[in-house]
Amino acid sequence: MKTKVVQNQSDPVAPEATITESVIHIVGLTKTFGNVNALQGIDLTVPPNSIVGFLGPNGSGKTTAIKLLLGLSRPTAGKATLFGMDSVQDSLAIRSRVGYLAQDPRFYTHLTARETLAFTARFFYRGPAEAIRARIDETLELVGLADKADRPTKGFSGGERQRLGIAQAQVNYPDLLILDEPAAALDPVGRRDVLDVMERLRAYTTIFYSTHILDDVERVSDYVAILDHGRMVASSPTAALLDGDSTTYELTVRGDEHAVLRALRTHSWVSNITTASQNGSTALTISVTDERAAESGLLRSVIATDDVVVAAFGRKHFNLEDVFLQLVKDPGE
Amino acid sequence: MTSITTTTIESPLVPVHTTGWRGGLANLVRKELGQWWGTRMWWIQTLIWVVLLNGVATVVMLEGAGRPPEELVTEAVQTFLQMGAIAIGIGVVLTIQGAVVGEKELGTAAWVMSKPVSRASFVLAKLIAYSVGFLATALLIPSIVFVVQAQFLLPVPLDYGRFALGVGTVALSVLFYVVLTTGLGCMFKGRGPVAGLGISLILVGQFFKGMLPLPLVLATPWLLGDVAASFALASTPDFNLMVPIIVTAAAAVALVGLAIWRFQREEF
Hints:
CATH superfamily of the domain at 24-97 and 174-243 in chain A: P-loop containing nucleotide triphosphate hydrolases
Structural class of chain A: alpha/beta
CATH topology of the domain at 24-97 and 174-243 in chain A: Rossmann fold
Helix content of chain B: over 70%
Order of helices and strands of chain B: EHHHHHHHHHHH
Number of helices of chain B: 11
Shape of chain A: elongated
Radius of gyration of chain A: 24 Å
Number of helices of chain A: 11
Largest sheet of chain A: 6 strands, mixed
Number of domains of chain B: 1
Mean pLDDT of chain A: 88
Order of helices and strands of chain A: EEEHEEHEHEHHEHEHEEHEHEEHEH
Strand order of the largest sheet of chain A: 6-8-9-3-10-11
Oligomer: heterodimer
Strand content of chain A: 25-35%
Low-confidence stretches of chain B: 2-9
Structural class of chain B: mainly alpha
Largest interface: A-B, 43 and 37 residues
Low-confidence stretches of chain A: 1-12
Number of strands of chain A: 15
Strand content of chain B: under 5%
């Protein structure tokens, strides 16, 4: 399938947000390991209280970018600011406002889940033991680990570690949650739960998460950033990305499809038409070069055609998989 | 998974504002000490060192029953302090070779460093906890046991003040090897170089210190066992007792700085 989407290598996710308003602001961020360019000058702006899906194939640089944001690694060039603070100079202050879930979360195996959360919480706040305990209980309940709270994490499965990872990432009420593949090790029920948690946390925090699961991104993300071979190949509000570039329309008709095709081909701004027949209807995908002319004249010319019933008409909506595959396809293909 | 609540104005939880090199230090020290004293580790270490150091001292005391009293005391104290300096050093290297490397390999170091924790705190917490742990279980408790043993098995009483000075000198040796092993862990990615270099330094000293020029040997921790015995027995060796102490202390401080400097450049 041939789709056309906005490819944007320099514009950030939310260009309207200023640096001071943004939670994350990345300019020209570059990371090189020897001869390998893991990140090649990426730009990105993440506005507050948004959920941003960070997509890309394996090895595209997602985890590298996340580690740079957290100060776990140093950029070769470029700059990242979080809450207006520099990711290198102000890393400690930044980390006091961030919750982070690693791709393969690991914890001290002699500690129980409850002790792990208490250890994490003490980095961020202090107070009466019962208040801290209540917060930990609430967090354990949130991720469905209440019944395993007092088991050492040594025996935890990958899914349980992932749940504990989500718990420890938000035990400090972070202003920003950075999640590296939060649903990767979870079963479908666990995945759904994680998405529910993310949607509920949206009111209190900003969520920046990497994932391979495109359905999840489509479901919960306000914005999408797509990385490929260390380059930002797209960054846009999810809806805008899926709406495509406004120059492709879908039309479903019953009746004389040849008459429709003849009518459409009279317009100079119609550049391409593909058809597919199904159950007595014909689905047409129409590409145009003049958006305004198409909006006013395309449907009208079809309706004016004899012996044709228009069953559906609208701008073509892409699904994220189409967009993703189009953007990150192997250059050799 | 269930509902979410958030902090409110009435929340009794107060944010921790730690900045600079001490960020997260107290919490990390607490965790590291918990790993010593909240698990089986403290009594296993205590058992090992009491059996080893006090066991050998007991044998020396019992076998020398017919010898002149001063000679027996000298041999018992020398055995305990000199063996302590070497054996605890080896024990330190073997026990904590993976303290930093293991965390880097497993990913727990990266996890901790994603919290408001300074790199210096991560290193210092390990140094503090392992120093306290080893000094208490491998040196202090066996030394107390040695004093009790001496009261029952030695024909003349120990000079407790001098013995404490000797134990203090061995403590410096223990601290040096804790710092060395932790520092090597910050510099290398695998356990092999950490354990190999640490153990080699100790063994080379024991086998070759008699063959090397004295000024060179004085610039190492190899003589600390002899210095400790000299303090405890009020004997006078043919070198200045303070030189190995000052050199070792200075080297330990330099190694702490080097370890922190290196760990601050670590990429996770």
